[in-house]
Amino acid sequence: xxxxxxxxxxxxxxxxxxxxxxxxxxxxxxxxxxxxxxxxxxxxxxxxxxxxxxxxxxxxxxxxxxxxxxxxxxxxxxxxxxxxxxxxxxxxxxxxxxxxxxxxxxxxxxxxxxxxxxxxxxxxxxxxxxxxxxxxxxxxxxxxxxxxxxxxxxxxxxxxxxxxxxxxxxxxxxxxxxxxxxxxxxxxxxxxxxxxxxxxxxxxxxxxxxxxxxxxxxxxxxxxxxxxxxxxxxxxxxxxxxxxxxxxxxxxxxxxxxxxxxxx
Length: 264
Description:
The chain has 2 domains: 3-109 and 250-261, Diaminopimelate Epimerase, Chain A, domain 1 (Roll); 123-244, Diaminopimelate Epimerase, Chain A, domain 1 (Roll), CATH 3.10.310.10. Helix content is 19%, strand content 41%. The chain has 6 helices and 18 strands. The protein has an 18-stranded mixed sheet that branches. The longest helix has 13 residues, at 72-84. The termini are close together.
């Protein structure tokens, strides 16, 4: 019997937008090498592997190149699949045991899903050699958290028009690079995320990057919650709320494929 496999577009209400994630529903834990092979086969920014566990589910995420410690869109996709397939009751929260601790998801009546994630605020830093040249921007702010660099620029148009040197970004000592700017209504800020070092030239919509963006923009703009748009070619919308040590990430999701993974 095959492994149930789903592809879900996350942080969108319409198919073929947002960020697609593969979700594999496993009956028992599988070797990391096998999960990495599956992720490489899927060729999506992340593939999630969900296993029943005491008081919830174990959850791991793999890009086509590496396992990652935190992923927002594939967590949202996993929760969506668990509710959609009846593995979780509509009112039951999804509890995920991960490399980043316990993450929870709550389904909201209007179709949105709320994720409870750790805050990962940036601290000001000097840009490493080659970063600004690779992006071709003059920043207002350069910061860094444990995962990524954050580059803030003055204009939304600059973010939307970026054509970075991906090969140069791949050499940086970080998971990825977030570029962000204040936005025109109905959004508070826009961003894009580049992570060639982990096999993703540009991630369409990045939940974990908003663990950095939410505290930065809440302090900078003086309001909370905030509405965000990730301006990749696919695009995606999030609502974010900074809650001190935690961040609420809200988004929609739509299933675009159901099937079975036959190779074991």
